[in-house]
């Protein structure tokens, strides 16, 4: 079915969920379908090679597609498709076409006074994030390798006066060797060989002011007790032959929990409550949820083609319910990448998935910023990315590994975002890490200090996100909607409304061209004052990010009081 209404050549469009390549969607046809982003997503030469194995993706593949958009005519629209595949078609400058692969089409339209008004109306309808606990605004160290190694890394950082508020250990439940090196076990209980006395380990770190976070996803792998239980109780999705659906993941086959089965959901929540929360974890990455096969047979009898998108929302809902049922609401943070309509109602935090460890526009550091901007307009107010990216490639003719420069520039960008979390990456030994040596730690220290000073501002913005739905990281368009220059600005952002940041997104760069909107802006380090509305090239050497505060705001006092 198609629904068409009139537009104009001057109308521009934003939203669609987490769109990693394009902020302004004018001229594009945007599919609404949750799936793996892909590796490369159109960036050359990466995509030419990953396309050979069906893993390239394209500029619109995303793990969090949401059938919502707003326009420069101060109107917005949300499609109620029951999860069906849909398309937002903005290619015709005279009209907008909304296409749904289903026999019904309905939706909600809003008119507003400005873009923030539209965000507020949409999130009042779709849901808003709860405020985060105070510790979430500290530095999250991503590390793995067992208790001895992680404790040593924390000691090394402490010696440099760096004190994480979070230790995120994705391998808390063990690893297995694969042809790619090693991958997580996907057996949702503590690995007592790598992390002996796990509960005690968590308690001791909590006493030092460090929360411990883990990892879980809705898959179960063979040769584990949990998988055997799920198979025997018919808790996994089935195939056309009514047998458990063995889904081929990167290096193994796995079974996906059937979230339409109430008994399966109750059982999986019990795993989270007993094996994660009671074991001492204060949160976790809630990974995947984009992988439901469209030919699967579900407990509910629903068409998997319709349920595929909604699976992501139900996965967030299950995690949230487990926390609420455990009486830990507001104390535990889980972060998910997969999303669809209403996911912002249940999630506590999003992250942007697996960018390449490179400078690519579609699947590198650029994509991480674009995804923050588009997601924010789409109701995903609390979001972040892996510092330095995640996906490494070690092919004969193509290598993607994190350089110190990329790590530094990504760290500079994320310093001005609410969640500052590192990730060792797919192949940690080939990536620069914050803890690599004294030089990397000394580079990080002043940026971590800035992030710490911004904590009251982050908390203020988190409260605003909860009460009004405003994203913490904002495209300039939200505050300067009559300035047409802001329509396609996806290489700089506002933190709240008081800070303007233009991260360096290209290698070997010592200066950067920035658009300054109306007002007076003062550099956080040099205190140089720039009067908008203008473009200006400013210095941006390593360690001196192009970050400005609007004069006369409370944020100015917060930064310069130090």
- Give the % helix: 25-40%
What is the overall silhouette? globular
How large, in whole angstroms, is the Cα Rg?
23 Å
Number of domains: 3
Low-confidence stretches: none
Beta strand %: 15-25%
The CATH architecture of the largest domain would be Alpha-Beta Barrel
CA(first)-CA(last) distance: 59 Å
User: What does the main sheet amount to?
Assistant: 7 strands, parallel
Rounded average pLDDT: 95
CATH superfamily of the largest domain: Glycosidases
CATH class designation of the largest domain: Alpha Beta
Number of helices: 13
The CATH topology of the largest domain corresponds to TIM Barrel
Structural class: alpha+beta
Number of strands: 30
Major β-sheet strand ordering: 19-18-17-13-10-9-22
How would you describe this protein?
This protein has 562 residues and is of the alpha+beta class. It folds into three domains: 2-115, Sandwich (Immunoglobulin-like); 134-221 and 262-468, Glycosidases (TIM Barrel), CATH 3.20.20.80; 474-560, Sandwich (Immunoglobulin-like). The protein has 13 helices and 30 strands. The strands form eight sheets. The chain has a seven-stranded parallel beta sheet with strand order 19-18-17-13-10-9-22. Strands 23-24-25-30-27-28 form a six-stranded antiparallel beta sheet. α6 crosses α7 (304-325) and α10 runs parallel beside α11 (438-453).
